[in-house]
Amino acid sequence: MITGTSQADCAVLIIDSTTGGFEAGISKDGQTREHALLAFTLGVKQMICCYNKMDATTPKYSKARYDEIVKEVSSYLKKVGYNPDKIPFVPISGFEGDNMIERSTNLD
Questions:
Q1: Residues in CB range of 85: below 8 A, 6 or more apart
Q2: Residue 25 · residue 49 · CB < 8 Å
Q3: What InterPro entries does this protein's entry cite (predicted)?
């Protein structure tokens, strides 16, 4: 991962949006934090954040859950050195294919 990241112009940070999954990733030793910090440290100045498993939130495709995750991740990315206002936050479902190739009506 380090070799590829050091040569990248943009990072796509995939974040688990399920209850428990997100909290583990954003925790002090979580991989979400680690990957965001590593990307910035290695010079990747552009980032896209994708919130995966939105079909597995309660309720499915929960706007409240999405907003909660965006707020917390934005706060952390700002501490790392990114400008959250310039980062697209995209809710997705890899399993259902929502927002993967075409815009999904499930995530409006």
A1: none
A2: no
A3: P-loop_NTPase (IPR027417), T_Tr_GTP-bd_dom (IPR000795), TRAFAC_GTPase_members (IPR050100)
In tens, the pLDDT along 18-31 reads 999 999 999 999 99
Question: Does residue 6 fall inside a structural domain?
Answer: yes
Q: Is residue 47 part of a domain?
A: yes
Q: Quick check: is 76 in a domain?
A: yes
> Token match 């993967």: residue?
100
pLDDT tens by residue, 10-67: 999 999 999 999 999 999 999 999 999 999 999 999 999 999 999 999 999 999 999 9
The 3 state secondary structure assigned to 11-52 is EEEEEECCCCHHHHHHCCCCHHHHHHHHHHHCCCCEEEEEEE
- Check which CATH number belongs to the domain holding 64 and give it: 3.40.50.300
State the residue range of the domain holding 85. 1-91
